[in-house]
Write a structure and sequence with these properties.
Blueprint: H1 8-37, H2 41-67, H3 87-114, H4 118-147, H5 155-166
The structure holds MU-OXO-diiron (FEO).
């Protein structure tokens, strides 16, 4: 008896998105290491934490594919992007990356609607909400930096920004605890 509840197209698209989240994790990890090497411990800590969140997103998709009786395909993760040129550029790149990921999430929502796979459509709504939060977070940090001078931020402003980032919460929610209402 076939218990697979995902179509071939949806399963393939979910597997692609799973790897995309893993790639996002690697990008945050590489930026975190870069920031740490520049001496920005607060920013590095924030980015390391975010790398873990992206890995949780990957796990959330993996668990969903398994739950629906389809095959998970773990493949190679592309290399992270090149290092940023500055702290401002780092967050610009992050914002760009999140917007790119939002587009990928929307494609999956559209596909699930076309296939009338309402379970996947519903599952993907969590990611739609999460992307709004992640874009807002990156936007707010970019706004802060813009006020402080953007690319021309003084050493003092960079120091304060890094210290502020140090104070942000260290908590990373496990994938199984996140819900549509509580991302
Ligand atoms: Fe999992 Fe930042 O998107």
């Amino acid at each position: 008896m076939n218990t697979n509840r995902l179509s071939k197209t949806i399963a393939a698209a979910l597997n692609v998105q799973m790897t995309k989240e893993a790639h996002a994790s690697q990008i945050y990890l590489s930026y975190a290491a870069w920031a740490g090497r520049q001496g920005f411990g607060g920013i590095a800590n924030f980015l390391f934490r975010h790398a873990q969140e992206e890995r949780n997103h990957m796990m959330k998709i993996l668990e969903y594919i398994l739950k629906r009786g389809a095959e998970v395909k773990v493949i190679a993760i592309p290399a992270p992007l090149e290092n940023p040129a500055s702290i401002n550029n780092c967050f610009e790149k992050i914002f760009g990356h999140e917007v790119d990921n939002t587009k990928a999430v929307y494609k999956l929502v559209k596909l699930s609607q076309e296939e009338e796979d309402w379970a996947t459509w519903n599952f993907m709504q969590w990611f739609v909400k999460e992307q709004v939060e992640e874009e807002t977070l990156a936007m707010n940090l970019l706004d802060k930096m813009k006020i402080a001078g953007g690319e021309k931020m003084s050493s003092n402003a960079l120091y304060s920004f890094d210290r502020d980032m140090e104070k942000t919460s260290d908590e990373v929610r496990p994938a199984q605890d996140v819900t549509t209402v509580n991302p």
